[in-house]
Each structure stands twice: as C-alpha cells, then as structure tokens.
Amino acid sequence: MEAIIMLLVLAVLAVPVAFVLLLTSVLGLKRRVADLERAVGVLQHAAPARREAPAPAPAALAQPGTAPAASEPTLAELVRRQADEATPAPAPAQAPAGSPLPPPLPPAREPAAAATRATASPQPRIAAVPRRPAAENPVLRVVKRWFTVGNVPVKIGVLVALAGVAALLKYASDQGLFQVPLELRLAGIAAAAVGALVFAWRRREHNRVFALSLQGGAIGTLLLVVFAAFKLYGMIDAGPAFALSVVLVAGAALLAVLQNSQNLAAFALLAGYLAPIWLSTGSGNHVALFSYYALVNAAVVAIAWFKAWRLLNLLGFVFTFGIGTVWGASAYVPEKYASTQPFLALFFVFYLLVPLLFARRRPEGRRDLVDGCLVFGTPLVAFSLQAALLEGERMQLAFCALGLAALYAALAWMLLRRRGYELLGQSHAVLAVGFATLAVPLGLSARATASVFALEGAGLVWLGLRRGRLLPQGAGVTLQLAAAVAMLFGYDHAHEDVRAVLNPTAMGMLLLAVAGWASAWAARAHGRTVPAAVFYLWGMAWWAGNCAHEISRFADPALRADLALVLAGATGWLAAEVHRRRPAALLAQTLLAAVALAAPFLFWQGELHQHPLGGGFGALAWLVFGLLGVRGLACLRTDDGSSAGAAQLAWWLLWTLLLSVEGYWVALEARFGQGWEVALVALPWLVLIALSLWRFGWLALPRDATVATPMRTPVLWLGFAVAAAIWLVVLNRPLSPAPLPWLPLLNPAELVQLATLALAAAWLRPPYARGLERLRPIVLAGGGFLLLSASTLRSVHYWGGIGWDGGLLGTGLAQTSLTVVWSVLGVLGWVLGSRRGQRGLWMAGAVLMGVVLAKLVLVDRSHLGNLTGIVSFIAYGVLCMIVGYLAPAPPRTAANVENA
After folding, report:
1. What distance in Å separates the CA atoms of residue 206 and residue 203, rounded to the nearest whole number?
2. How far apart are CA 618 and CA 655, in angstroms?
3. How far is CA 536 from CA 467, 517, 519, 786, in A?
C-alpha cells in the first residue's frame, strides 16, 4: 500500500514538471501572436497616411532622421517575420528601434530611390506561410493550463500534502489508532447530523437553498443511522426504529411546511413511504403496514389543505397504490379481504379529496387546471384493485361501478355549480358516465354491452365535436372500440341465436355500424374529414360483417350468393341516396365497391347453381341488383367525380362479364362447338366497344352523357384489352363450329375475330385513339395475316382430315397451303402498293415474298418429292411472274417523281 501511495505522489509531482516544460513554448507562441496583432494594428493606422502623403523626393530619402514611407507587406510576410526564430533582416537606419514595420518597398515610378533603398536596406524574399503545428490534445491542454495558471507552487504543495495525509491516515489505521466502538461512531454521525440540522435552521433566512439542502441531508443521515442501528447492527428493536423514523419524517414534513419547501416535503414523504420497507422484519402484518400508510396519506391530505403541491400528491398516490398492488400480487389471499377492503376504500377517499383540495388552493383564474393523473388515475386503479379483491364477482363489481358512478355524478353536479371548477366538474361527469358504462358489461351479456357502448360512444363523439372538447371525443372512440371488443368476446354465443336479424348478435353489430355512421356524420358536419372517413369505414366494416354473419348463419347454402348480391346492391343504393343529399366521395366509392363485389358473387353463383342466372333465384337477384344499381347511378347523375365515373365503368364491365359468362354457359348447355363458345364469350365485349364508339349516350344512362364522357376512353381500352386477349388466345384453337360445317372466315369464332379487327380499325383513328393512328395499318395488317394463317391451318385440319396437334405443321399440305396463302398476300401487297402509290405496302409485300422464298428453301424443299411441295414452288413462281408483269418496281415517292 505504501508503494502505491509513493507512486501516486511521484506521479503527481512529475506531472507539473512535464507541463512546465511545455509552458515555455506556449508563452512564446502567445508573445508572437501579440506582436503579430500589434503589427497588423500599426499597418491599419499607417495605410491611410501613406495614401494621403505625396511621394517623397529621391533626395529626401538620403536625409538623416527621415523615415522612408513603408509599403504594405503581405500577411504571409508578417507571419513569417514574427514566427521566424532566425535573425531578422536589418532595418533602415532611420527606422525607430523595435518597430514591427518591414522595410518599405519603393514605388514603381521612382527607380533611383528604389535602387538607393535596395542598397541601404536589402529586402528579404517573401516566404510562404509556415505549416501549422499539429493540434494539441484538448485534455492535455486543460491539465497544462491548470498547472500553469495561478499559484503553481501552492497547487503542487496541496497535492503533496494530501498524499502525505493519506499516507499518515493509512499508517494510523494499520497501527489500530482508530478503533472506536460502533455505538460511538453512529452517535457521532447522528450528533454531526443534528448539528448540521440546527445550523441549517439558523441559516434559513440568509441562504435558503443551502439551508434546505443541508436540512434534507441531515434528516437523511439520521434516517440512515436509524436504519443501520436496526437492520445492520441490531442495536435497537423494530418498534423504536420505526418510531424514530416516523418522528424524523414528521419533523421533515413540518420543516417543509414551515419553510414552504416542496422539495423538502417530497423528500420527507419519500422517506416516510420507504421506512416500512427498509425497516421490515418480514412478519407480513399488512394491517400495521396499511395503518401506517393511512397516517402518511392523512398527512398528505393535511398538507394539500394548505399547499397546492402537486408533486407531493403524485408521490403519495404512486407509492400508496404501487406498494399496495405489489403486496396484493404477492401476499393477498381471500381470507384477508375483510382487513384489506377498508384500507382500499380509505385510500380511495384520500385521493378523491386531494384533487379537490389541489384545485381549491389554486389561484382564482387557474382552478380549471385539472390534476388528471389523480382525477382519472385514482378511480381506475382503485377499481382495478377492487376487482382483484372480489376475484371476478361480476354482479358485485357492477354494483360497485354503479356506486362510483353515483358518487362522481354527485361531485360533478356540485362542482359544475361553482365558478372556476367547470373542467373539474366535467371530468367527474365523464367518470360518472364511464363507470355507469362499465356497469353494463358487468351486469349484462357481452353483446348487449356492445350495443350500449356503441350508442354511448357515438353520443360522446357528437358531444365532444359540438363543444370542441377532445376528452369526450376520445372517450367516445374508446367506448366504440370497447364495444367491438365486447362483441368479439360475445361472438362465441352467436350459435345460440334462433332467428334471423332479430337476435343479439345482429342487433349488436347493427348498432356498432350505426354508431360509426353517426360519428362520421357528426365529424363531417364539423369539418373533420379524416375522422369522418375513419368512422364511416368502421361502420361499413361492421355492416359487412353483420351481413356475412346473418347469411352464413341463417341462409340456405344455395341462396347465399344471391342474398349477398342483393345486400351488396342495397348497400350501394343506400349510400348513393345519402350521396344525393350530402355528396361525399366515400359514398360514391361505396356504390363502386358494391358493383365491384358483384363480380366475385357472380362466380360464386356459378359455382352454386351452374350459372349466375340459374338456381331459381339467380335471375331475380340480378334483377333486383340491376334496379338498385340503376337507381344508385341515377343518384350520381350529375356527379363528375372520379368515384362516380369509376362506379359506372365498373357497372358496364360487370354486366358485360355477366353476359359473357351466361353466353359460355349457353354454349355448353346447347352442346355447341368451341367456335360458338368463343363467339358468345367475346360478343358482349364487342357490343360494349361498338356502343362506346357510336352510341355512347345509350351506354351512359342513367347518368348524364356529358358527365360520363371521361369514362369513354377507359371503357374502350378495357374492352379492347379483353377482346384482344380473347383474340390471341383462340389463335391456336381449332374452333369447331358444330353443329355447322367449317367454312374459312365464315364460322362464328373467326367472324368475331374479323369484327374485332374492324372495331380496332374504327377505334385507331381520330378522335378515339389520338396519337395511335400510325399503328392502325400495322395492327390491321398483322392481325389479318395471323387470322388468315390460322384460318388456313384450320382448313387443313377440317378439310384435310389432319389432327390439330403438333404434327399439323409438319405435313406437306399445311406447308403448301401456307406458302400459297402467304404468296397471294405478298402479291396483293405488291400490286396494290404499286397501283396506289403506297411504297410501304409494296415493301411489305416484298418482305412477305422474301419470307416465303426463305420458307421454300428451308422448309418446303423437303416436300419436293410429293405433289404438295411441287405445287408450292410452282405457285410461288407463277405469282412472282404476275408481279413482275403488274408491278415490277416499287412506286415512286413524290421526290422521285419531281426528279424524273
């Protein structure tokens, strides 16, 4: 130990020596900086004089006692001259000694004087600014400053003396010179604490902060002495120790009140609550514990009568109920109910009164500030503990909640009649409503609770919005959420419902939906758009859930899709009717959602009874849905919003889809061939496209055609997207026209494909598809080529008796047929392009003929051994000769004609 102390002393002594060495360089730098600042100051004062004084004559420069005019040096030169440790350049004889100014530079217009000055006092060359020294460690800089500023010897001497005193104390301890009885040690500490307390009391008027801090420390020291004497060393029993602690805590509280010190009172209260914990013997006497806390809380109430110290109130509340909760969770048993219930009631009364006393001590204009932690926290925590004591006895808790509701209602009535207590009275009124609400689920079933909560929540939201208060609004939202939770908990009993609609589950869900819609209406009436949307969607969710529950619970499985369709239509129609009176985008979107939901219901109906209009009630369901939808769209007649337009677009697509599905079912039911299936599926989409192109006014009904016009382009795009998809999908299908015979391009499916191309030709021109006109010949030519090629292969399939499989293209008949058809198309392109002067058409025919030639060389040559291959080559040659006769060269462009 002595070696460690000596090392510390040596280290302490060595540190200042090392830093003193660094001090010299620091002081030198400081002197150089001061010189530099003086030089800059002199230059700033000398510059105006030099600008005003005339240039000196050459003769005057040689006169003794006359200082030459100095020219301004650069900052780099000044820094170099001040920082350079070498011998400075010699100054002129006339310059005053010690002047920081550099030798003057001669003006350019006086060469003789410049030469003289250069001879008398040569100028050193301007050097670059020296590199900055490395940054010094900030920690070392602080330590160095401590050892270099002030009386350094005294500081070093104090450190050395402290090291010596430490060594002396260690030596005395080792020799046993400090062996004092433990009782005397604690008594000495207590005496010192009492002396400090007396001193602090006497100094309370002169230095308040110091006196209060010293009083708190002294009382804390005395409490620690009592704790050590009891818990650590067993010098006193639990009773005297507890009594001394109570006396000290009471004394601290008294001192706090006398000196108006909230902090000292908080310290005393904290010590008072902790005293039973650190002085506990483990006996588990909860009556004694809560009796003591009752006295402490009585003191809190007494202080609250005189002082509005919120911190004190919060500390009492937190420790009382916090320690009570911990004790209840660890040591409570039902046998202790009779001895625990009175204390819970007493503590509740204490902290029911404290906020009232707090408000009473507030200034007249600030009594409306509610101590919300105690006003709302006390009943909630106390009721939770009460529920734990009663162990879930629902009826007893229900009566307890009703009693609290009556108590808070009486307090609210009293406070609201007094001026300045309005907010406190409203808070108690909210608590009264809350406990009355809480009594409902405790005494009634979960589903009945949901109904009451939902309506009460809607009323609170309306009241909060009307009065501009956030608290009722939050309470209303909370109640509606609580109603939802109650309904979910009570849903397990839904199987007990015996009749449709008129059952607790349906009524509860309906009231939840109505409460959400009512809240949305109130929020929208007060300009709260976002909350209104949330409330509306909340109500719609419960409405949809209610419909789903009733259908799944009571409807016949074969009719569920039909009922769902009718309910969707009714929902959309009701929303549209409300929209007609109070327009809102969400209402129009509800109609849109109803129409969109009808699409999956359509397929659901097909799964249940083969096709949507079947099953006995399918057609009736669609009739009702159609009437409701038409009325809903009529309510949106003049609405030019995007939601209304999207609803009508979905309406068109829905009925087109329905007709397509029904057409497919008709083809299957009549045992028609695949060609009829394709035709009946695609025909409704072609009708939709045709109406959009030429009779859009009919399609727009029941809405106004002018308002519905923006939807014309989307319906055309979507219609052609579906038609094109069908067109491309059926290219590789045989498309049997049974019961009719096969005829190329005159069978149902290919006629529909031709009609699709014709409609595309009409669409790809102004004013329908602006900007896409250049694609029209490409689409028509490509589509016609693909259609003729597929029709050729189908002719081979049906007339040649070749199977429609992968081997079809490998036959000579198929290849010859394609060669002939493609050659005819190429020849037509050549000839028509030449006759009409359309160079692009002529080039397309030429390219196609080139493709056919490549096909002859690569594919058809393998069939030259049979008749079909020979026909291919002969047909191609004959056609090429015809072209050579009719259109041997491409048509001339306008530029070529002019040049000719």
Report:
1. 5
2. 14
3. 21, 5, 8, 53
C-beta pairs of 847-856 under 8 Å, 24+ apart in sequence: 848/822, 849/823, 849/879, 849/880, 849/883, 851/822, 852/819, 852/822, 852/823, 852/826, 852/876, 855/815, 855/818, 855/819, 855/822, 856/819
Q: Most distant CA pair in the chain: distance in Å? A: 138
Look up residue 83 and give its two tokens.
């920082």
Judge if the upstream peptide bond of residue 714 is cis by omega within 30 degrees of 0. no
Distance, in Å, from the CA atom of 69 to the CA atom of 63, rounded to the nearest integer, reads 13
Q: What would the DSSP string read from start to end of 497-561?
A: --SSSSSHHHHHHHHHHHHHHHHHHHHHHTT-HHHHHHHHHHHHHHHHHHHHHHHHHHS-GGGHH
Write out pLDDT tens, residues 255-304.
Answer: 766 776 666 666 666 666 666 665 565 566 677 677 767 777 777 777 77
> Tokens standing for 843?
């080039």
CA 687 to chain centre: 47
- Residues 6 or more apart from 63 whose CB is under 8 A from it? none
> What does the pLDDT average to over 34-59?
60
DSSP string, 211-238: HHHHHHHHHHHHHHHHHIIIIIS--S-H
- State the CB neighbour count (10 A cutoff) for residue 678: 25
- SS3 call for 163: helix
Is-cis flag, bond preceding 739, omega within 30? yes
Q: Are 645 and 699 in contact (CB under 8 A)?
A: no
Distance CA 620, CA 862 (A): 63
CA angle 487, 489, 494 (to 5 degrees): 70
CB 760 within 8 A of CB 779: yes
For tokens 């060609």, the residue is 675
User: Strand, coil or helix: what is 695?
Assistant: coil
Dist. CA 821–CA 871, nearest whole Å:
12
Q: How far is residue 328 from each of residues 284, 321, 455, measured CA to CA in Å?
A: 12, 10, 36
Buried b (16+ CB within 10 A) or exposed e, 274-309: bbbeebeeeeeebeebbebbbebbebbbebbeebbb
Burial letters for 374-398: b for 16+ Cβ neighbours within 10 Å, e otherwise?
Answer: bbbbbbebbbebbbebbeeeeeebb
Q: What would the pLDDT profile of 216-228 be if each residue is shown by its tens digit?
A: 666 666 666 666 6
Whole-structure pTM over 0.70, yes or no?
A: no
Nearest to 550 by CA among 608, 598, 503: 503
Tokens of 318: 């937190």
**Residue 790 in tokens:** 């597929």
Residue found by looking up tokens 């433990």 in the block: 182
Phi-psi map region of 317: left, alpha, beta (phi>0 left; psi -120 to 50 alpha): alpha
The residue that leads in pLDDT, 412 or 52, is: 412
Helix, strand, or coil (residue 86): coil
d(CA 894, CA 890): 13
d(CA 196, CA 208): 14
Q: What b/e sequence results for 434-452 when a residue is b if at least 16 CB atoms lie within 10 Å of its CB, and e otherwise? A: bbbbbbbbbbbbbbbbbbb
Cα three-residue angle 643-646-650, rounded to 5 degrees = 140
pLDDT 10s digits, 842-870: 777 777 777 777 766 666 555 555 555 56
